[in-house]
Amino acid sequence: MDELDLLKKDWNRQQGNYPKLTYDQLYKMIWKRSSSIVKWIFYISVIELVVATILNIIFSGDKYWEDIEKNNLEEIVTFLYVLSYLITFYFIFRFYKNYKRISATDDAATLMKNILRTRRTVKFYIGYVLISTGITVVGISAYMILKHSRRVIEDASKYAFDAVDWIKFIGISVLVLTVFLGLIWCFYRMLYGILLKRLKKNYIELKKLEI
Fold first, then answer.
1. 89 and 176 in contact (C-beta within 8 Å)?
2. What DSSP string describes 100-146?
3. Which residues of 109-141 are buried (b: 16+ CB within 10 A; e: fewer)?
4. What predicted TM-score, i.e. pTM, was given to this entire model?
5. What is the mean pLDDT of each run of 10 residues along the chain (211 residues)?
């Protein structure tokens, strides 16, 4: 049981009018805990960006860029990289703004709105990651199939692929993609889910204080 829970338990045992000081203590504890949670959301998003950048540098070697240039994809790949980083920086900026906004909050009603805003921003960010990853996987797969379409067709004809086989192939591909995105969703649920649950708990506590 943390300090806030101990204060709440003591507060609930009191009878009659609640002392103003005790209410302020409870509010400040919720405010402090909410500010700390949003700060960690911001820190995690920055760490995530740094790790992703390092991995991108490691796996995008000379051969990778040689293949990009050979297929005249420099412009579109550069555009996608820039777009991805811009969107990621936008979300990091939103997380930082949410942290600063909560840190400067001085009333319960505004704090509740800021908590809801932060939770919504995190959910949008997770949705962006899932959608962008799905589009990237589908795009790369489609490009590889088109690039090697002649060999794919020859191999398919060699093994007598019919409509049912193609349906199975597409179904398995969709299943694999779904599982892959599901694993990413589980990862982000573990990464941000605990913090979001704590924010939700703080929101519920604030509503109780306002009643």
1. no
2. HHHHT--SHHHHHHHHHHHHHHHHHHHHHHHHHHHHHHHHHHHHHHH
3. eebbebbebbbebbeebbeebeeeeeeeeeeee
4. 0.74
5. 56 49 74 90 91 79 72 77 90 92 81 89 91 83 68 56 70 86 88 88 81 56
